[in-house]
Specification:
The chain has 307 residues and is an alpha/beta fold. Helices cover 39% and strands 14% of the residues. It is built from 11 helices and 7 strands. Helix 1 packs parallel to helix 2 and helix 6 crosses helix 7. The longest helix is centred in the middle third of the chain and has 16 residues. It is globular and about 55 Å long. The chain starts with 16 loop residues before the first strand and ends in a 12-residue tail after the last helix. One zinc ion binds next to loops.
Length: 307
Amino acid sequence: MLNRLVVPRRYDRDVRIDLHTHSNRSDGTDPVPDLVAHARAAGLDVLALTDHDTADGWAEGRTAAEAEAIGFVPGIEISCKVGTTSIHLLAYLADPSYEPLAAELAHVREGRTGRVPGMVERLNRLGIRITVEDVLAQATGTPSVGRPHVADALVALGAVADRKEAFDRFLAEGRPAHVQRYAIEPGRAIELVRAAGGVPVVAHPWGRGSRAVLTADEIGRLVAEHGLAGLEVDHQDHDAADRAALREIAAAHDLIVTGSSDHHGVGKTDHDLGCNTTAPDQFEALLAVAKLNAASSSAVPPEAYLP
Ligand SMILES: [Zn+2]
Ligand SMILES: [Zn+2]
């Protein structure tokens, strides 16, 4: 039985909790303070910042959240891979300076930035005049330069209409400008997050090709062998049938169920802040698991800010 946490009264009901958003510290378009202000304006009570493979926006996020009197949960969306299939793991309240985790995240970030020249070269061979500088010009203040910035450069050059077309025609797995890169094996990432005192939750488990890999059996294995704590069930990548099936899998393994927007600013349509939310009791369970994992960890995990 998990410890029940004392959650401020206003969080008991009717609270709107969005546990997955991106700023321009990864591939979102909003600077962190703008993202937090938009979250407040969208009527959210709690926001998690989960940029890809970096905790860079946390301090700024916390400061902005205090100014806006909105709850703030520091998170990271970790790039994992099974074979060539990309899996994303949301890590909540993990200590990003915990050495084994920090080393893996650095490796992933280097792999992402390191493939930019390869993608540029392939695009050049396809007759598109694009340079690495064009790509870097699209990445404002992020340590995590990657495909979305190549896509933005292609848009700026007029080669494609939007990011989606850039991915569909050139950058997605199997497309002509795609380059493989380093990512972590999910079981290992889950264990690192727990060791760093955090809570591992699989992001959009059945989105973008990961359905074939993350079967009910495989999810069960990640729980039993590695300590997976939750599934992001309510996400725009999942239709009603997917959500119902994932909810059943979560119930079978006593997993936390989260819901979130995966907001990217104007970088991704149909992902408005608060379009999916996490139920307060599930959020409470997540905080309780964080508390337990923090207690058994040698790391120094951050705390959620809940005004
Ligand atoms: Zn993702
Ligand atoms: Zn995301």
